[in-house]
Design brief:
The protein has 97 residues and is α/β, with parallel strands linked by helices. The chain contains five helices and three strands.
């Protein structure tokens, strides 16, 4: 059963519909397919991307979503490294751009 069938207030949209309706977008893609997937979408000035994409830098993602801006990239490799390096101070660990 689809969520939209089970719950009254669930809306289904394609990727472009989500982009069009959003000012802030949380972007989770494999870096290997990001350029192909993002090339099909039209972003607008003023939109902000927060990415969860291992293997891509913030600058690389930013170039793919112009004129929108990628403002933070939380990749699993950095997250795990920072968490490990924080040791007993893990609660104070900061990740981001």
């Amino acid at each position: 059963m689809r969520l939209s069938e089970a719950y009254e207030h669930v809306t289904i949209a394609d990727n472009q519909g989500v982009v069009d309706a959003s000012d802030v977008i949380f972007l989770g893609l494999m870096a290997e397919v990001a350029s192909e997937v993002l090339a099909e979408l039209k972003f607008r000035d003023g939109q902000r991307m927060i990415t969860f994409m291992a293997g891509a830098t913030l600058e690389q993602v930013d170039a793919l979503v112009r004129p929108a801006r990628a403002v933070a990239n939380y990749d699993a490799v950095s997250w795990n490294r920072a968490w490990r390096d924080a040791g007993d101070d893990a609660g104070r660990c900061r990740i981001g751009a």
